[in-house]
Amino acid sequence: MYLFGGFSVKQVLRLSRAVALASLFIFGAHNLAQAQTPSPSPTPDPVIAQVTSSSADSFTGGTSGNGRLVVIESTGDIATERTATRNNVDGNREIFLYDYAQRRIFQITNTKSSIQPSASPSPTPTPSPSASPTPSPSPTPVPSSSILIEVSNNRPIISNDGRYIVFSSNALTPDNFDAATAPAGYSTDANQELFIYRIPALSSVDLSNGADPPFVDLSTGTFTRVTDTVASRAPTPGSATASPFVADDNREATLSDDGSIVAFVSTRNLTGGNADGNPEIFIWVRSSNTFFQMTNTQNTTQGNLTVGTFNENPSISGDGSVIAFISNANISIGGTGNNADGNAEVYLGSFTGSAATVTKQVTRTTSTPTGSTANVLSFGKRISRNGKLLSLESLSNDPKNNGTLAGTALYVYDIANDAFTQIGPRETTIADIRRQPIFTGDNSTLVFSSILNFDATGTVPTTAANGLNPINRSQLFGVPVSSPMTASPAITLLTNTPSNSAGARLAAYPSNTKERIAFDLDVSELGAGNPDGSLETYYLLERSGTDVSSATVAYFTGASNRPVVAASPTPTPSPSPDQVLGLAPGELAIMRSVSPPATPVALAPSSQSAGTASESLRTPSLPVELNGVTVSITNAACGLYFVSPTQINFVIPVALGTGVHPLVINNNGNVIRSQINIIAPQADIFSTTMDAGGRAVIINVTNPSTPTTEPADGFPVTSTDASGATVATILGIHVSGVRRALRTNVTVTIGSVTISGNDILCSDQTTTTTPCFKTDTPGFEQIDVRLPASLAGAGDVPVIVTVSGTTSRPTDTAPHTKIK
Predict the structure, then answer these.
(1) Are 25 and 590 in contact (CB under 8 A)?
(2) Would you list the domain boundaries of the chain?
(3) Of 560, 780, 591, which is closest to residue 686 (Cα–Cα)?
(4) pLDDT digits over 650-676, tens only?
(5) CA neighbor of 381 nearest in space, from 431, 448, 333
(6) How far is CA 184 from CA 16, 112, 180, 187, 188, in A?
(7) What is the pTM of this model?
(8) What is the pLDDT of residues 134-160, one digit of tens each?
């Protein structure tokens, strides 16, 4: 076992079990690549970690108040804890729960649709019971035309205390259900019902510490069925011209802080007051299993046309006493209604524990000439936890008094003072995305999405560059809120998404504060890998702090301690032989605090190492907070192996583009700003010195089930493979920096012999895997090479890996191996 520095991390990949690779010694600095502090930033620095990675979309459903848990709805096979019997290879819509502290995703529901009989059925994909080296392999969804009864799990919301999830499902038992083996009566029912899931208890942890908490399997909680109703319409199968149908009879549920009260929409006659099957607002009390009907509305007739009435998207306060919803009904309040035109208006209701009553019509607007609604109250938590504030969108310039209709604007409604405050500008020449406004759990901040460009006062600037979002990207913003509201509260930019995010779907799900926010975003690359632009779930840390103006840091490659030249828009074209121009995406890296000043600025309060590192079993693969320290490059969170007052070992995010990037270290509020040059793939070979020279970390992997380290007399050029045959030896060379390298651009020189072409193999000994050299340990790659007979008797010789003309080290400082 090779041991580098104070702690070791075993690779999960089968070739690396024989070698424990570790964080790095604190080496003396030489030829330092110094990065001075740029000017302070006026806003907090976002640090963004990608949670899901799948070719299927993942919709975030909510975040617990402490920021630890995030509930997700996805058709991807995204769980880190998947097994042969609990997975989502069929691409069903399932509910998942992410634990930021454990860095694990648990699959909460495990359901299967029933498939129509086929003369030549396709074989069901069989998942491997062992961990896959790909974090989220692409599921094989069943074509909708083949589905007899579609089973799905939808719209999860998590309680503020992190103990309950409410969702809708048409599985009889969402924990484990296959519609193909359901009772006979299921085929004529199969409507969506409400369920509540009790999450297993978790101990309190300091999320900023990054230490591994005790393992808790969050998929072992208990399900309670809330509704049990007869379907309004029987399910129908999919076909070449139509999608499968099931009745969405019980839906859009939300819950109080402790999950004791649930507000939802149902078309069923749960209390005896909904015989006509209209979608009405209902309340369910968990302790008594009692339903209360808040609305009682009917369809209307206009000439020969029947106009359907709806009540949708309830939002509930923390104690369950205040409910907001949107409706096109002319609801009577105090004996009269004020919505004769049937526009969608926002209402408030009250729940006392024994009665549910509609108490106020919040908006009074007219429908647009096209008949579309003037107001938007989207699904989710749109009311503050204290029940004092409500967020909505409206075309009206005075939503309370039938104001003129124009572009959509965002409003906060102060319930007690019956007053609207517009947040930001109204859309005019540019159509905005849906703003999805939502309050932080401490009732202090409204977080919303927008592509509009405005300044901190919410005014569109004359010069675009003076705004917060000059190129109109999908961004998250925050604004302080209170009751009563302050006039023109200052708006803060919370994200800094790339230019390709313009028009992307973006929705936030904050914790109790804006410091921890889950969000989902599509068609965007934030640095951690989303090549197909799927909707993915992300975790945002909004880290504030004070800049340390005198701080200076130096960078080194993580495997062999090569100094990195100072980053600038035009890096040094010809560095000294032992230097490199920058660091590659996915590369293991080191930063050190150096002089000046006389006393280097501390990078961390004390030394701490990551407890686990795995591409397949953790997400992110490394902690992005460790001992209160974060490192980000262009806002993309860096995985942290080790932090100390003088050194940080970290991994460059795998999907950053080349060029000079800002790098920010936040040590518990002390902010150090730097720059780093991201370059094309380069090989950095691990050695026993973790510096120049030494023995290259190489394994004989000819028989992958029994890899061996370098023998005293050297590696043979032929070895016995798994079948017992004698074949050319295959060596696995441990490197960093080639995560995105193409196999055809890699050559390996051992002594005087250069190996290339199909004798260069991926880490799984194929020639087609992408990424080719990736292992399960972040920052560690493996290049397999097939030895030619001409190497026999080479003796003790240097090993050099070249990627597109860039060599790992010069011959005189390269690590060695021995070939007998």
Answers:
(1) no
(2) 33-47+546-678, 49-115+136-248, 258-388, 437-541, 684-819
(3) 560
(4) 999 999 999 999 999 999 999 999 999
(5) 448
(6) 51, 16, 10, 6, 8
(7) 0.92
(8) 444 555 677 888 999 999 999 999 999
